[in-house]
Design goal:
By secondary structure, this protein is of the alpha/beta class. The chain has 12 helices and 9 strands. Helix content is 38%, strand content 19%. It binds S-adenosylmethionine.
Amino acid sequence: MKPKKSLGQNFLTSTAALAKIIETADLRSGDAVLEIGPGKGALTEELLKTGAKVLAVEKDNELVFFLNEKFKKEVASKQLTLINGDILEINFEEKSFIKKDYKIIANIPYYITGQIIRKFLTGKQKPTKMVLLVQKEVAERIVAKNGKESILSLSVKAYGEPKYIIKVSRGSFFPVPKVNSAVLCIENIKEAFKNGEEKRFFEILHAGFGQKRKMILGNISDIFGGKESAKKALNKCGIDPKKRSEDIDLSGWKCLSNI
Ligand code: SAM
């Protein structure tokens, strides 16, 4: 089987990286795990060793055929369920594949990182934890390693607590990708908003980051119906109107969206 670039197929070959993912996942026997893109099953094998029940979704039907052979025993005992499909198209709520608390542990295809994170953080059936191998720069942006927030970092922090675990160098994969990776963990994922709050939060966030160079006041004036009311809102939230959006933390954005 030739790795398919179009499906982001870079298979993990580092046992140290696999061990770190498993350690971070902190699994108990019987825990429910959703794995996205099992590939040739390197991570799947380690997940199964913990005694977890794994649901693995793989888009490449050749790989699903291979995995069914490789994990014949685990499939027969129902410790492993393999689904041939596109993770973004499966409606997990409708199909009720997942009936209890679950964790997502995966080396995901990088071309859909943002979509995967969005789908599972904003969906009704949120995982309790996500341990993902992602592009290093993406992990750094999500935890705001440089002290600068972004729509991406705030969107993740609204639902859980992201942690940068460890760098995984590009040589840890076959074929070797152009970029380095990192293990990202998002813990304590929760339902963060009540009715209507979610929509408002993202509206203000997108307005706030409309023009990055502008001060927060200029960016949110329209959404508050003018400069004066925007100033009042910022005052109420204890935010300096001259600040830039990237310097405002989650609690500031939540306060503004509540107003
Ligand atoms: N987990 C394996 C490993 O660590 O070696 C493979 C990781 S590889 C980076 C990503 C995997 O996701 C590939 O097996 C690819 O075929 C699969 N994939 C790509 N797009 C997908 C999608 N939309 N839904 C489900 N799986 C997908």
